[in-house]
Amino acid sequence: MATTVLQSADAPADAPVGATGAACCAPPVTAPLGVEDATALARSMKALADPTRLRLLSLVAAHEGGEACVCDLTDPVGLSQPTVSHHLKVLVDAGLLTRDKRGVWAYYALVPGALDALAGRLATRLGG
Amino acid sequence: MATTVLQSADAPADAPVGATGAACCAPPVTAPLGVEDATALARSMKALADPTRLRLLSLVAAHEGGEACVCDLTDPVGLSQPTVSHHLKVLVDAGLLTRDKRGVWAYYALVPGALDALAGRLATRLGG
């Protein structure tokens, strides 16, 4: 990515009076997020962009032992087991939950560090 | 904030044999996310669930002075001004960007603390 931004053709004529000229179109000081990185991050955010999935993550995290099965989760969210299972699969596919089948039930837990990693990306203003 | 976690009615029968409940998977001290809170948080995440919007936020944050106009952003993301303006509006509506019209251009900047607040919610495992 080019780090020097030449005087933009569409800027100077429209620059507000009193602008220094450096203000509007100077190059960024840190590396902004690249396309691939943004695509991966958007995928994680999409998994979080649903109230039920956020509640399921929260319920799993708050559950005794840090893990829960579908049987623990249907009542709190008031949804059927297939619907809850679908949302849990989205969260597993997004790398936010682990799934561990033991006996009849599958147990879900937070992937260690996954939410922290996302939090870190936001806290550092999505730097690349 | 409740710091005691009562024995959950739906847990004992399904609790894995041998789990200590300590060390790795101790329960968090916060209550799980409520419906209203989850809905609001999902709305913010939805605004972030798009690679272009993530890149725009990142570009604005990295821009000199912490603000940028559409004229600064179209080239880096390779999209038309109307498309970029649409994405910026979504980010403003989500409370992630401010919009300040000065002269011909509108200048966008991160809402102070907004990304940090979201990061905090993720880092605390979406506690309510």
UniProtKB/TrEMBL annotation, chains A, B:
Residues 33-128 form the HTH arsR-type domain. The keyword Transcription regulation applies. Keywords: DNA-binding, Transcription, Transcription regulation. It comes from the Bacteria. Pfam families: HTH_5 (PF01022). This is Metalloregulator ArsR/SmtB family transcription factor.
